[in-house]
Amino acid sequence: MRTGVSTMGHHDPKFIEADIAEMQSLGLDDVLVAIQENDFAYFPGKINFTPTIARDYGLRPVAIFWGVLNLFGGGRSSQFLLDHPAGLQVARDGSPRAAGCYMNALCRSRIMEMIDVIVARGFVGYFVDEPTPLRECFCPACQATYDAWYGTSLRTADASQLEAFRQRCVVDYVQSIATYCKGIAPGMETIACLMPHDEAMWEQVSGIQALDNLGTDLYWVNHDRDVAEMVAPITRLGNLCQSNGKTHHEWLQCWNVRAGREPRIVDQGRVLVKMKPDALYIWAWKGQQGTAETCDDPAAAWEAALQVLRLAKQP
User: Fold this and answer.
1) pLDDT of residue 199
2) What is the pLDDT of residue 273?
3) How many domains does the chain have?
4) Which residues in 215-234 are b (16+ Cβ under 10 Å) and which e?
5) Is the pTM of this model over 0.90?
6) Taking 90 as the threshold, does the pLDDT of residue 77 lie above it?
7) First vs last Cα of the chain: how many Å apart?
8) CATH assignment at residue 212
9) Do residues 202 and 192 touch, judged by C-beta distance below 8 A?
10) Is residue 156 part of a domain?
């Protein structure tokens, strides 16, 4: 089982190397680097230095665009949208919404430009992080796409038509980005994570030819849901990945863990290891300490995650 961890990273290579060396000592295979828009503009050390250092220590560097366009995970602060308001989502009443639209050609072009950069710097994988339906967007791009696909107006679509369209947009986005990656770097691993509440799209996304790796994130640590209920969705996604020749990954929560909930990390981790996905990833390195999404007790949460990583590497 491949193992890996996401990291917010550093800009100074000295600190990058210290973390990567520790990751190597833990037997990790992948480091998934959460890159924000500001890293491209103002703090490029994370992008420039991490791939070489990771490869020197035998880890595979994978890029995640975290919070890009005020979408895709946390850390949302989009300079691009401040400079390019035409990329914003538009509400039904015509008012701008505080996030971008991935159906907008301007936004897609920017993401593709960023992919060009991470390919040039030596990242070996690109991770499409939690694309989800943009159910409240009626921007010109969404309206034009709906008209092209269905020949009618997005504004007159009923609830079922709207939902089908929004889900199709997610599939279209993942396919477009994965295909772009393969076009400029055929050897790059293309990865996507679809959240559990987006399970309706798992089957279609698993069939995307240009996508190599698909997973989900059952972040239940702060909830009392029976961990035995994890088996059904993990099995379904694993079967879809196997049928379509995809690598199957799963995420384990080590962020925003509330005090006293740390044993749940191990409980969920035991189920994940037993289910034997191809890869098990932890979000995030050392409990995401120092961010707004840190755990109440990062050290305790990280120790629980380490127990799971050790289990994952047992014969």
Assistant:
1) 98
2) 98
3) 1
4) bbbbbbbeeeeebeebeeeb
5) yes
6) no
7) 10
8) 3.20.20.80
9) no
10) no
